[in-house]
Amino acid sequence: KTTADILTSYNGIGIHAKASNILFDPDSTGITIETKNDGAGIWLTDDSNVGEETDKHLKSLNYLYKGDNDKKGFGMVFTSKDTTNATSASNYLDITFNNNGATVTLADEKNNLATGTTKGIAGILVNTDNNDTVTNFGDIKEDTSKTHVRSYGAVVNKGRLVNYGNIELNDSLNEDASNVDKTDLKKVNVGILANDHSLAARTNTYIENHGDITVGSNSNKNVGGFGIYGYRIKTGAKEDGSKSKITVNRNNYGIYSGDGNVNIESTKLLVGNDTVLGHVQTVSGVSTAPGAYP
Length: 294
Hints:
Helix content is about 5%, strand content about 40%. The protein is mainly β. The protein is globular.
């Protein structure tokens, strides 16, 4: 759907809920929300929930970013104000996001020619206290537009994310590997990203994934993307008990831990040519690689 049910301007929020539930009529298919610069489709605080179990894969949030190319947009944002108790929030809607209907490549970003954002668009942003938990049951993917720079299924600034939804992103960078330099690798697409650069990143963030994650295709222009980039990481089976799957295409990474324990269970890592799975110590369980990636 390209026509918004709710339209906001700069720094706008389509729906805000604090310790509340956002529910939909049984015959509803969800909601479409449009924002401009640094906007959020749905903003949730503390123990808030979007949809309910019977909505899974039947209702969706369609997020339309219509802002400038040097700002950001987020489909759904989870925050917390309760500093006394650990909070729990959830989402049952599928999430699609559209980056101004544009195709955004690394070349567009470098030449400032992009009509969509090059600074970051994400289905979910988690920015809570480190003991708060957000559980996502919805699938996340880009719709119509094609963002090859800084496109994320979910970003965890702080807090705990447990994901059961499938995440599908477009090719990372969309550029020949020979033309990609070190600074470009800070602009790649990531399925789930822990975006904490502090010394406390290991305790501030936690990612647990039970869904399928695919970043792009097996194109030789799909460069540097990550399935999961974080610190403390755990993977496990899908809701139906089958193995989750992370597809790692050529010139890309599967699971990478900057500094934390990694527990990979009931997960298939599908590997393509020229694949890099991550830091060698990450694969065995613990990484001592310093610092955050982005």
